[in-house]
TrEMBL record:
It comes from the Eukaryota. InterPro entries: Phytyl_CoA_dOase-like (IPR008775). Residues 316-335 are annotated as: Disordered. It holds the Pfam family PhyH. Residues 322-335 have a biased composition (Basic and acidic residues). This is Phytanoyl-CoA dioxygenase. Pathway: Secondary metabolite biosynthesis.
Length: 351
């Protein structure tokens, strides 16, 4: 609970400072310091501890993963356009719904489509996070869907955008992120790229920085320019493309330098993946839980932080002219079954 107690104090302190660079930075310790604190695990946690990421093979049986993939593609086809998965000429913006800045789908209530929840509720997925956090009383993020066509003709290929998803003010482990792979992700396909072991140098790197202006305002993403990447490469770290098969679960420590890569020119694979992260419900404040329940009831989305940064936003998809997208939706196409387990993971029901 240390993170939720010290965060408001740190923000209040910073708000009193006119010059962010001179603000006293109050570091936020790991809420559960014993988690992933040793190297003698006999399962995937050993790799997660050592390298900062792990691939859990077959977390979802292949037949169900393929079903979720087809459901995801059906969702993308549901907007009544000329989109044809077999015709690259149709892979253009006018045939696709609105995507966010990182080119994933987080609107139109997709976060709460039945296939999204069914994948999040898969025992092999939930159990992996329960093993990481040593509790099955978890919250899950209402994160986005990734369907990336290779070699699109209408947009430039996105360059690497190395970052960590944890504020420099946080020290130690605070979040473990997840990708549920629904399509093959080989060396040339789009997918996660990590800098193995970079999480182990997080404290040393930020501890060595004299100018902390870039740490403020508090937010749990930190972009690394080339000059700062050089600090890590000088210590032997570099990019590694994580490969996975349908049904695999990719986990990574939020302190690991990473980015989502575009398919290379050699790829003909349409990437399909669901982002899902889980943290203990005990890490959420009552205020954040109340907000999470409101977001859930509006079929809204969150970041990958299941217990923090929850905000009730306008769920409508707005066009550049200020009008609502006529394709927008007030509820999922297929509403999930609101089971006891789902409601607890959603933060809508107490453990």
């Amino acid at each position: 609970m240390a993170a939720t107690q010290t965060f408001p104090q740190a923000i209040n302190l910073m708000n009193k400072q006119e010059d962010a660079s001179s603000a006293k930075i109050e570091l936020i310790p790991a809420p559960m310091p014993h988690i992933l604190s040793k190297g003698d695990y006999q399962d995937f946690r050993a790799e997660l501890y050592e390298n900062g990421f792990a691939v859990i093979k077959g977390a979802i049986p292949l037949d169900r993963a393929e079903k979720y993939c087809e459901k995801a593609h059906d969702w993308l086809r549901s907007f009544g356009t000329d989109l044809d998965f077999d015709n690259p000429d149709t892979w253009v913006s006018e045939n696709l719904p609105h995507a966010n800045q990182i080119r994933t789908y987080a609107d139109y209530c997709v976060n709460h489509e039945k296939f999204m929840w069914d994948a999040r509720l898969e025992p092999g997925v939930v159990d992996a996070f329960a093993k990481v956090w040593e509790t099955d009383e978890l919250l899950v993020s209402f994160d986005s869907l990734n369907i990336t066509f290779p070699n699109r003709k209408d947009i430039p290929r996105r360059k690497a955008w190395e970052h960590i998803d944890q504020s420099p003010m946080r020290r130690g482990l605070h979040c473990v992120q997840g990708i549920i792979a629904l399509s093959p992700s080989g060396p040339d396909d789009g997918g996660l790229v990590v800098y193995p072991k970079s999480h182990k140098f997080n404290d040393e790197f930020f501890g060595s920085q004299s100018d902390k202006k870039s740490w403020l305002p508090f937010k749990d993403i930190y972009m690394l320019p080339q000059t700062e990447l050089d600090w890590f490469t000088a210590r032997g770290m570099g990019p590694h493309k994580v490969c996975a098969e349908p049904g695999d679960l990719i986990l990574w420590d939020s302190r690991v330098i990473h980015y989502g890569s575009e398919p290379t020119e050699k790829s003909n694979q349409t990437r399909t993946a669901i982002y899902a992260a889980y943290t203990p419900a005990s890490m959420a404040t009552p205020e954040q839980l109340a907000l999470k329940k409101q977001v859930f009831e509006k079929y809204g989305g969150t970041t990958h932080w299941p217990h923090s940064h929850i905000a009730v936003r306008n769920p409508h998809v707005m066009l550049p002219d200020g009008t609502r997208d006529p394709r927008d939706r007030d509820q999922p196409l297929e509403i999930p079954e609101f089971s006891d387990r789902l409601l607890k993971l959603a933060g809508a029901k107490s453990y």
